[in-house]
Design brief:
The complex is a heterodimer of chains A (264) and B (347). With 264 residues, chain A is of the alpha/beta class. Helices cover 41% and strands 23% of the residues of chain A. In chain A, helix 3 runs parallel beside helix 6 and helix 5 crosses helix 6. Chain B has a domain of 233 residues. Chain B has 15 helices and four strands. Classes of the chains: A alpha/beta (264), B mainly alpha (347). The complex binds adenosine-5'-diphosphate and magnesium ion (MG).
Chain lengths: 264, 347
């Protein structure tokens, strides 16, 4: 490894996840370094989402450890992990459908907000003041992802591409230090994907580390500092985008044996 | 505009005892008000967190019994030769204690039940209410069982011998219930428009997403149960010191069902829903009675009306009226995207 261990923000070591008899992830070891964009790629069913779920506390790992800046994540609840600064999005579009776009982002600001139950019940002025600050912050975040004009819309009336942006806005509202994105551009058209890549570049400037799961190779190769490739639960390659692109094992995993033979 | 409407509505409610000289109708209004408070408290749980408490009347009854026993005084044997007795305390203290104890029970039930949610919460709350009812029925030394607690004192506020308001007559009780109702409404309104209420709504709408942005599921569900239980308890104390007789029938399942009907027909998850539903279903039995509908038919009418509301206005009356109002306004002002405003308002 060329990176010094001191710069490792998230360390995943020997992670193993089983669903009954099926081993979804086996002995997975990798690190995410402070400030980088690391992509986790691999064919469908490789175990990428399962790894995300284990890191963020949605499922329990059957083996191995996950450490975020020295804190062991194993056994923590999702909300505790979010408090540490790890915030994720979901592969299947996930917003608060019945709420307005602005309210969606306000939900995301839960950890930013400091209101205590008694202060709320007694209607202290600090609560009203903070509510105004939160609304302003929510509008700012909507502007950041390009949804300014949609604040009062119902989330359910947004077109698909904008729903995916709203998901990112909700996650950003939680002030992540490490943002985990699970296939954020799947289902987007090329121009939506292109503008999403611009947003991702802006996110990097905010000093947010990104762990990205994505199928769109053009995007992965364009935005990643490093790529980890997973196949059938095991890591088969770990390197720069260029190294991954030329790696025969990766090509085989993605395109199948026949393609490699035909090319050879 | 909205503020003016609220003010007009409050002035109307406050004026009722001034022009209404039928004391029976005033009594019905007081009872309806007490039920509206209970329905509002249930709505905090059912409407905002999405958890159905089918034992909600237990908190109401706990408030009633605790406040009655505190103000009547009691003497019980906890062991054959260990007797615990308490002298009568002032009514305001009893009401406060009844509210707090109901809230504590809410906390316990919340901690217990939210490990397992949904259907399990329903079962835990039903069982809890039944156990409490059996205690009230069978612990005769404390509760008089089916003989009921009688001669419960009424509330007096002020300095004895100097200036005192007695809540004995109906107009005074009407204003007391109105004041407590407004207070509960304000507290619920503040809660749901704050961080806490947003967390509850987020859990109801999408729990995995809510926890991904740091919402502590158990914490906010327990908070909702505590506040909800305390308010139901407060309604129970109002009942006890107004009716001035409390028996184990306050725990009857039918009262929980009535509260649920009020919340769902009015519109769960809206502030005005339980008020509207509570007033309609609280006054309906009296309207039917004066129309000489036989008592057996009353329940049939009740049920049919409920089914009609749920069938034609599945969100409840308040959201339906609001949607209709907003879509009319959107039609008048073509620069507003009609689809966006109506959909945004539909929750
Ligand atoms: N909750 C679950 N129960 C059973 N099997 C699961 C579950 N989640 C994922 N799997 C299985 O684990 C494997 C890895 O899935 P997943 O992590 O979703 O892959 P990816 O995100 O890389 O497409 C697949 O074979 C999938 O069917
Ligand atoms: Mg996946």
């Amino acid at each position: 490894m060329s990176q010094s261990p001191a710069s490792a923000e998230l360390i995943v070591k020997d992670l193993t996840i089983r669903f009954g008899g099926l081993t979804a992830v086996e002995g997975m070891t990798f690190e995410v370094n402070r400030g980088e964009v690391l992509s986790l790629i691999g064919p469908n069913g490789a175990g990428k989402t399962s790894a995300f779920n284990a890191i963020t506390g949605y499922i329990q790992a059957n083996g191995g450890s996950m450490t975020y800046q020295g804190t062991l994540l194993n056994g923590l609840k999702p909300n505790q992990i979010a408090e540490l600064g790890l915030v994720r999005t979901f592969q299947k579009t996930s917003v608060f459908m019945g709420q307005t776009v602005l309210d969606n982002v306000l939900h995301g600001l839960h950890l930013v907000s400091k209101q205590r139950p008694l202060a709320i019940i007694f209607g202290l002025p600090s609560v009203a003041r903070e509510e105004m600050e939160l609304a302003a912050e929510a509008h700012r975040i909507l502007g950041f992802v390009g949804l300014s004009g949609r604040a009062d819309w119902a989330a359910s009336s947004l077109p698909y591409g904008e729903l995916r942006l709203l998901e990112v806005a909700i996650a950003l509202a939680a002030k992540p230090k490490l943002l985990l994105l699970d296939e954020p551009v799947s289902g987007m058209n090329p121009s939506e994907t292109a503008s999403f890549m611009k947003i991702l570049a802006e996110i990097r400037k905010l000093d947010i580390t990104v762990l990205l799961v994505e199928h769109d190779m053009k995007m992965v190769m364009g935005v990643s500092d490093r790529v980890v490739c997973l196949n059938q639960g095991k890591i088969i390659a770990n390197g720069s985008p260029a190294e991954i692109q030329g790696n025969p094992e990766v090509i085989r995993a993605y395109l199948g044996e026949r393609y490699v033979r035909a090319q050879g | 505009m909205k503020r003016g409407l609220t003010l007009a509505w409050l002035l109307f409610l406050a004026s009722v005892p001034l022009w209404l000289d039928n004391l029976y109708i005033l009594h019905v209004l007081i009872m309806t008000g007490i039920f509206v408070i209970a329905a509002m408290s249930l709505n905090l749980l059912l409407g905002y967190t999405g958890q159905l408490s089918l034992g909600h009347v237990a908190f109401f009854g706990i408030g009633a019994y605790v406040s009655s026993l505190t103000t009547l005084g009691f003497s019980v044997h906890l062991l054959p030769d260990w007797q615990v007795s308490a002298d009568p305390k002032p009514v305001w203290f009893g009401m406060l204690l009844g509210t707090v104890v109901a809230g504590l029970f809410g906390w316990a039930i919340g901690r217990l039940a939210f490990k397992v949610r949904g259907a399990y919460f329903v079962i835990v709350t039903i069982s809890f209410a039944e156990v409490i009812r059996l205690v009230a029925l069978n612990w005769v030394e404390l509760t008089q069982g089916p003989m009921a607690l009688n001669n419960i004192p009424y509330l007096r506020l002020g300095i004895p011998e100097v200036f005192e308001v007695a809540f004995l007559r109906k107009p005074a009780n009407y204003y007391l219930v109105l004041a407590v109702g407004i207070l509960c409404y304000i507290i619920i309104r503040r809660l749901v428009k704050s961080r806490a209420g947003r967390a509850m709504i987020a859990l109801r709408e999408n729990e995995p997403l809510a926890s991904s942005v740091g919402v502590d599921v158990t914490r906010y569900l327990v908070l909702a149960t505590v506040v909800s239980a305390a308010m139901a308890g407060a309604a129970g104390t109002l009942y006890a010191h107004y009716v001035r007789i409390v028996d184990p029938d306050v725990f009857l399942f039918i009262y929980t069902v009535t509260m649920v009907i009020m919340v769902i027909s009015g519109g769960k998850g809206t502030l005005a829903g339980p008020v509207v539903g509570g007033i309609i279903f609280g006054l309906l039995p009296e309207v039917l009675r004066s129309a000489r509908v036989p008592p057996e038919m009353q329940w049939v009418v009740y049920g049919v009306l409920m089914i009609l509301v749920v069938y034609f206005l599945p969100q409840g009356i308040v959201p339906a009226v609001r949607d209709w109002w907003l879509s009319r306004r959107a039609a008048d002002a073509p620069d507003v995207p009609a689809e966006a405003t109506t959909k945004a308002a539909s929750r």
